[in-house]
Amino acid sequence: MKTILGIESSCDETAAAVVVNGSEVLSSIVSSQVDTHAKFGGVVPEVAAREHSKSILPVVKLALEESGVGLEEVDAVAVTQGPGLMGALLVGGSFAKGLAASTGKPLIPVNHIHAHVHGAFLGLEHEKQKPEFPALSLVVSGGHTNLYYMENATDFQLLGASLDDACGECLDKVAKLFDLGYPGGPAIEKLAQQGQIGAVKIPRMMAGRDDCMMSYSGLKTHMVYFKQKYPEHDVGLLADVLSSFQDEAFLQIIRKVVHATQCLRESGKKVNSLVVAGGVSANQRFRQLALEHLPFPSVFPSLKYCSDNAAMIAALGWHLAHGCTEHEFRKLDWQQFPRYDFNFSNL
Asked: Model-level pTM?
């Protein structure tokens, strides 16, 4: 199995891609709904599902056209099985199942969070640029803040996660609090660049816990209190506080990575690199802090593969297809999110 058609529809991007051998991207098409949802200040699930149903056929057609690969040359279809918005997932999953059934292609279910990690492997020109296993991997996005230990490309051992808000969700909510627009992460990053780091004291999140769990609700609440205390703040003060807020949002994660590394090495396990993925991995300050504070190489995706895309779905699908039988797919992935279980026996 060589050429995989990937389909992604977990949230507000309808995407399709053709990927060869798990890393060579022949095409990657993303139809974003950001403008549609911006007026609501966030994603509306029913609207997202309706937009996916409009876009999925033309997006898949365009991905095949740009790749130069005919549908008959595709070896398998990989599709996001979850997690995500139920209606959005059903659009992509149903389309992929129908496509696989009508063409006789294998259907590969893919965990969306795990697939983000493989976004960091896409488009690397040299083998030495690729992360070295065993590795730690971070998925930092609007919906997830997860830390994994990976002994190979398909092994995801969850070490820690956010107990409440995801990091990206916290950034979006704070941006909305200060009327900075949606999505909030890029808006905060831009304004924070004008501020002085450390000029405003921010509490350290989860400092008293000796584990890898994270939390963002307290950080968000701190910003609510700041606005209540300084309702007439000027742009300079806001830039200073956002600069400090952004640093703490990222440094909490980095502290947990350092802690996980120490615990793993004490138990005799190696950590050779860190892979960072998800929409928040596009933040340049986050990348700078990782390079400054971590004792091993950090690999970030190209900016075009940070946010949701189908190339990452196809890439992980390729690895799964080479490492699991159909029975193992159902055992390892489908049972984790049973409400999205598209029955292989009907294909």
From this structure: 0.86
